[in-house]
From TrEMBL:
This is Aminopyrimidine aminohydrolase. It comes from Achromobacter agilis. Residues 22-214 form the Thiaminase-2/PQQC domain. Belongs to the TenA family. Keywords: Hydrolase, Thiamine biosynthesis. PANTHER family: BIFUNCTIONAL TH2 PROTEIN, SI:CH1073-67J19.1-RELATED. GO terms for cellular component: cytosol. Catalyzes an amino-pyrimidine hydrolysis reaction at the C5' of the pyrimidine moiety of thiamine compounds, a reaction that is part of a thiamine salvage pathway.
Amino acid sequence: MSFSSDAWARNAALYEKTRAMPFNQELASGQLDENAFRHYMIQDAHYLVAFGRALAIAAAKADHADGVVQFADAAKGAVIVERSLHAGFMKQFGIDDATFEATPLSPASHHYTSFLIATAWSAPYPVALAALLPCFWIYAEIGRDIQARAAQPNPYAAWIDAYAGEEFHALVRAVIATVDRAAEAASAQTREAMHQAYTHAAQLEWMFWDSAYRQASWPV
């Protein structure tokens, strides 16, 4: 069994909890509170900068030239291409630059970004990739799942279409293939560390959406 197949099977129940959580159910129905979506967009824009940094570190650690290009391009996509989508959403939902800049990372966002950057810096290349994989893969699967049952018209259609689209899914398939290749050459100990990193990142994906739904902030 490939690493990715094994990781998905080990975390299938967690994915189902993520798929069924209120944020994603209400996003599909078009009934998600706009304030929750605004919270999500601000936090995700902050997150993508850190995600891009972690991808850039992974590119520097890559064991093959193709990996350098793959993850350097993914870092560029995270910081530039996807943030252009956010800029459109922020304008649509009335989030100005001052509001964005004045809003700090939420506790869940801070935890997730700190984990990714720390893992990218300190862990072996295969483990760093495993930590980054859930953000790609879970978003792709959630995007397709929501698109299949989304109410029409839907105020969040652009977000849904971005993550359900073939361009994003092709990127995700390429990342999965690279992670599996890295896992094939890894020791059993490293593969288990990859599984731990994947699961923790998948848990943080759930926490990120849950935090947005609750519009969570620092309690003190």
